[in-house]
Amino acid sequence: MPTVPQIRPRVGVTVLLLCVALSLLAGLGMREPMPPDEPRFVLAARQMVESGQWLFPHRGSELYAEKPPMFMWLQATGYLAVRSWQVAFLLPSLLSALLVLWLSGDLARRLWGRWARPYAVLALFACLQFGLQAKRAQIDMVLVGMTTLSLWALLRYLLERPASGRADPRLLALGTFAAGLGTVTKGVGFLPLLVFLPWLWVRTRSPHALARVRGVHAWAGMAGFLLGVGVWLAPMLLAALSSADPALHQYTRDMLFKQTGTRYANAWHHVRPFWYYLQVMATLWLPGVLLAPWLLPAWWRRIRRADARWVLLLGWSLLVLLFFSASPGKREVYIFPMLPALCVAAAPLLPALLQRTGVRAVLWGYVGMLSLAALGMGAWLLAAPPARLQAIIEGRGLELDTLATLAMWLLAFGAFALMVMAVAWCAPRRRPGVAVVLVSAALWTTYGVGLMPALSPDSSAQALMQRVGARIGPDAELAMLGWREQHLLQADRPTVDFGFKQPWAAQWQHAHAWLREAPRTRWLFLRKEAIGPCLDPARVIDIGASNRRAWVLAPGDAWMADCEVPADWSANVSED
User: Is the link from the previous residue into 351 a cis peptide, with omega within 30 of 0?
Assistant: First the structure.
């Protein structure tokens, strides 16, 4: 393999890295949190700031017992620093993405040499899933920041050979601490610890190829992990066990058992077949997955030689894939922690691969198809008759002007991508890798500055809740039934809710009592399908559609006299 990289000029690398950073920053503060996950986390973080209760996150009036609060802590801390939720809710993902890029590049430098660093960074950035998660306010980018930090420290601990010949226990403690933090961020944060299994295999094949690890170091590792998980777990358990509140006891059981072992072994949603992640790799890992026919044989040859660097990176990735494939519940983000490790493993091979005709052809093809897809979609949105767009408009509450804006941004991106492709093709050395990075940067800039801000008012329910506020007036009181997190988040006034997971009949009984106290000034916001048997249909007001659902307003005096909701009544609605 040549040791002279294709990306050699330092100025060229700096420009590409600057484009990467700017594209990840693009759009920060220009949109609202959007479903499915973003409003939920921001709502809990906002309630932490407003109430001062940071240990037990809430979703409205109920405890939120589906994810630990670590990610919400980061969002709330970001808000306290910048005083803008539009900026703060995306900061954890942005900073984690930059951290993962740095860690991947630094690990490649330590394993293969300085010349490999830009290949690892740019290969990771070019994969679609990385940019998508970096631009979303979901837990998974922060989780990958912690798992990558843990893997970075553990691989250094296991592979580096200091002058003393002994591994550094401080790296082990850092790696296990990051794994512990990852575990209380999302339950699978412990996965980097699986790297010790391929390490044991290498020890049996080449015992002298690795630094000496002393058994006493295990204490440093255990201490680091316990300290990491104890950041949240210790105060949470202390508060819950010292309280007589049954809701806190149920929260503890849900977090320790239902959302961990039960969710893994007997998933109740997102059930997918065993091979599901092959489909994820074939789409969200583009364009990197296109190089698999060349990477897999090269990796296999190095594994057969028991090269510890590749064995640990690839063996760990395979174990993560098997771990998630064995669970019936699968989501595309679950295998995201593998991607940085695979890009580090690919980095030393890319200089030679980018010289091959077949690799260059598939990369040119990827850029061309991405450009043509954007141009085709944009042209269709502009040229399609309104009747063809009606399903999109009605289902998501979008306006024709919004679709026209999306079309213009898609056309602009497609045209720019074709221009980049033409310039790169005409360059003296025809560099498809550079074209892929620049087009990826343009894609995420378009996504952040154009596409998401255009969708934000409708998809975030901001426009819907503005209509609600205008309709009921500034002095009215508002309650919600059958609501989603984005509605509570975007409401323009303090809002009453009757639970998120409470039975429908119980919610209606509470709503009736609330409305009856001041029927002339109180309003109920709810899903159209959830209208109870005691509301006068003639008094109910359609307020519009949002997130594939129709929503209505009911004034307090719309409740029919002497009507009671049956105890066994349930709304005939589907879950979002």
Answer: no
Q: Is the pLDDT of residue 123 over 90?
A: yes
State yes or no: pLDDT of 162 exceeds 80.
no
Q: What's the average model confidence in pLDDT over 148-159?
A: 96
The total number of residues shown for the chain amounts to 576
Q: pTM, whole model, 2 decimals?
A: 0.94
Task: Please spell the DSSP secondary structure of 155-213, one letter per residue.
Answer: HHHHH---TTSB--HHHHHHHHHHHHHHHTTSGGGGGGGGGHHHHHHHHHH-TTSS-B-
| N- to C-terminal Cα separation, the chain | 51
Q: How far apart are CA 210 and CA 187, in angstroms?
A: 31
* Gap between the Cα atoms of 491 and 510, Å rounded: 20
Q: What is the gyration radius of the CA atoms in the chain, in angstroms? A: 26
| % pLDDT > 70, the chain | 95
Work out the average pLDDT over 9-21.
87
Q: At what angle do helices 139-159 and 338-346 cross, to 10 degrees?
A: 50
How many Å apart are CA 108 and CA 341, to the nearest integer? Answer: 10
Average pLDDT over residues 329-358: 96
Residues 292 and 127 sit within 8 Å (Cβ to Cβ) = no
| Closest of 511, 472, 469, 507 to residue 490, by C-alpha | 469
